[in-house]
Design brief:
about 450 residues; alpha/beta; TIM Barrel; eight-stranded parallel sheet; two-stranded antiparallel sheet; 10 strands; MeMalonylCoA_mutase_a/b_cat; intramolecular transferase activity; Cbl-dep_enz_cat; Methylmalonyl-CoA mutase
Amino acid sequence: MSEMYFKQSPKTTVKQWKQRVQFELQGADYNDLLVYKSNEGISLLPFYASENKQFTYEVSAESQAMISLYCSNVEQTLKRINFWLSKKVNYFFITLHFEKNNWIEFFTKLPENGIYFIDIQLLELPFLQKVNELIKNCNRKIFLCNDSIYNFLKNGRWFQNQYADFENFICGISNKNPMIFADTTLYQNAGASMIQQIAYGISQAMEYFKCIHNDFIINELNICFKVAVGDGFMFETSKMRAFRQVAESVFGAFNSKIKIFFIAEPSNRGLSILKSKYNENYIALAYESAILGGADFILPKNPLIYKKYTLENELNSIEEIQKLIENRKASFLNGMCSFEAISYEIAKKSLSLFQNIEKNGGLLQQIKNHTLQKKIKKQAEEEQIFFEKQIESFNVDFQEFAKKNEWELYPFIKQKQQKTLVEPLIAKRLWENIEKRQLKK
């Protein structure tokens, strides 16, 4: 229980409260019964006071709803952008889905009142150079996103090769809105701890920063992290705040003027094929954690992972996010002992792991020697065992699992047998093992 629910009398000391609580426990151990310790060694206390705060870090970011679009048809995508602009959604994360398209026309026709984060990984260098020149001379706010390390880790290989992929990244940096983009969602969805998510995510951005720090004169640089957020409200909110704290600390040490952005989406990790309200509640908590944690942009998520996401569903999700944004601000938690204490612990451990990664050659070295994959796999296995034990103790109605005839999308991992340079990091939902066992009965 945090201090947002627990009002301490100004005449009563923390020591007296602990003594009172211990008396009420009638001999039961205070720490065993009331202090929850995560498998990362971070404690969640029954109440917090000023003595629990070791560091004050204020977050002032105000969240905005953002729409994700996969663009394979220029005209259709432009129509969808105009539709969302009419619904007062001005921020777009756009993935250019394949190469053979008139991308110059697309960039030229983007409405000027939108702000666009565009994933350009599939663009070949000659196209990218043309796009870059176009952006320099247009009035639109466009940020180019290019994270080949994410692809390398997810698929076990580069798009072309490491040199060519990084050359594409460097070409994208030289536009008028230079940005490093690091997609860290795979870590959370594959079972990484909060500390691993932050440390690996910042190391991922650092790999790109090293490429440009000595070769480019950049007065202003944007660094954008895409993050996945689960439903553990206290920890996930604190994780978001700690992520920003560590990122600003690490990159603030350089002379460049650097601005940190966060794009957040609900994680797939805890989603199920249950037809109850479970997934909706999970995603609602993730939205709230992201907003109070200080995400700049929130992407909607389909709560029914076995169903196609319709425009009506997406509208409902955006409305839900916008209502939360109206009533929630990250600044509400500034100075709150519980979140600041937990954020500090997460930040301290994350910074230590980040420094260890850099001392041992950086993130790419960790991926190439499979250290990262092994550590996350170990963490995921421990989480899986704990999760399944929890499910055994709950009264879950397995009849509420959607049957195969109700699926429009396949809800389980699909792995291709293919040659890779490194072992890919595989995203897997915690419910999958249980669902498969139940569906076989």
